[in-house]
Design goal:
The protein is mainly beta. It is 0% helix and 54% strand.
């Protein structure tokens, strides 16, 4: 292993480039294999409050609680850079990135749908009837939402646009 200097809030695996992204409260770290261990190959500062991360292609989105979402370009993992921010919800618990959209789990506000195809990012929808959207996961054209209020899991169709 490798000591990253702070508690890790979330991990995301990039199978195409063999990078394990790790998020702490204030850092986004790119980790790669080094023999039997890991080494830090990149460090990118994020606003305090990093809660979760999600990736799709060369983009990575970080949910930042009351600071919304930050979108990063990871085309060059060693030079990861912030490209946009979105702050349309009171608090973002989790996010999932699929194609040109980010779905933001905003607790009692529901799930925001954000277009990330251009800057500035813009809200294109809000599903407020999905309960307390606490955790999200997108796979194979669907997004799964954990409703913390009813302890149920909901599924919505989310076709990719890229």
């Amino acid at each position: 292993g490798v000591d990253v200097g702070a508690p890790v809030a979330d991990l995301e695996w990039d199978s195409r480039r063999q990078i394990l992204w790790a998020l702490t409260d204030t850092l986004l770290l790119g980790l790669q294999w080094a023999g039997d261990s890991l080494r830090i190959s990149s460090r990118t500062r994020v606003d305090a409050g990093g809660r979760s991360l999600t990736s799709h292609g060369d983009r990575l989105a970080v949910a930042l609680g009351s600071d919304g979402i930050t979108l990063f370009d990871t085309a060059d993992p060693a030079a990861t850079r912030e490209i946009a921010r979105w702050a349309g919800a009171r608090f973002v618990y989790d996010a999932t990135l699929t194609g040109d959209r980010v779905y933001a789990g905003a607790g009692p506000e529901g799930v925001f749908v954000i277009d990330v195809s251009s800057v500035p990012l813009r809200t294109i929808g809000l599903a407020f009837d999905l309960g307390f959207a606490a955790t999200l996961l997108s796979r194979d054209g669907y997004t799964y939402i954990l409703d913390r209020r009813t302890s149920s899991v909901r599924r919505i169709s989310t076709p990719t646009t890229r």
